[in-house]
Amino acid sequence: MLRLLCLFLLGPLSALAAGDNPSLSAEEIMARVAANQNRAEKLRDFYIYQQHIHIVTRKTNGNAAREETTDYQVTPTPEGTQKDLKHLEGRYWRKGKCLEFRGEPRPAPDSLDGDLINDLRDDLTNDHSKDGLGRDLFPLTSEEQKKYRFELAGEDTVHE
């Protein structure tokens, strides 16, 4: 889903790179980006989609401490979205042993890594937004752009 949204975001920028409107201001460019972000946000109201989340925490030596993969089916509702957990699997290390798990309940959910993964997943997907995606993941909507000032630092022509 994020790849699709990136295409909506980059769509107007690719037109600029092709030289369609070489004299656009920063405000005009960002207005086009905001329009595409707004359109993508509204389109998510009409689709049932799957959120696939894979999170790994690591120890200071770089070794994995805990890993979880979840799949949710997200269905639009008049009030927002309904998320149904369809798949949960993972593994964690305890006393030098790798322990695998599938489904609920997650083992050791109150451990440091278990709690961290749960909170991170919740922050990314349950931002009380209408579409069930964290609002901070898409900061370039017209509403979010009001918080920023954009400036065109220069132009460059790219030849392939």
SSE inventory with pairings:
Layout: H1 2-17, H2 26-43, E1 49-58, E2 64-77, E3 80-94, E4 97-102, H3 112-125, H4 142-145
Antiparallel strand pairs: 1-2, 2-3, 3-4
Helix pairs in contact: 1-2
Overall description:
Helix 1 (2-17) runs antiparallel to helix 2. This protein has two domains: 2-45 and 139-145, no CATH class; 48-133, no CATH class. The chain is of the alpha+beta class. It has helices at 2-17, 26-43, 112-125, 142-145, and strands at residues 49-58, 64-77, 80-94, 97-102. Residues 1-12 and 14-18 have low confidence and may be disordered. It is extended and about 60 Å long. It has a four-stranded antiparallel β-sheet with strand order 1-2-3-4. Helix content is 32%, strand content 28%. The protein has four helices and four strands, in the order ααββββαα.
Distance between the termini: 29 Å
The rough form would be described as extended
Give the strand content: 25-35%
Low-confidence stretches: 1-12, 14-18
- The count of domains is 2
Counting H and I runs of at least 4 residues, what is the number of helices? 4
Quaternary state of this entry equals single chain
Using only CA atoms, what is the Rg? 20 Å
Largest sheet: 4 strands, antiparallel
Query: What would you call the structural class?
Result: alpha+beta
On the 0 to 100 scale, the average pLDDT is: 79
**Major β-sheet strand ordering:** 1-2-3-4
Secondary-structure element series: HHEEEEHH
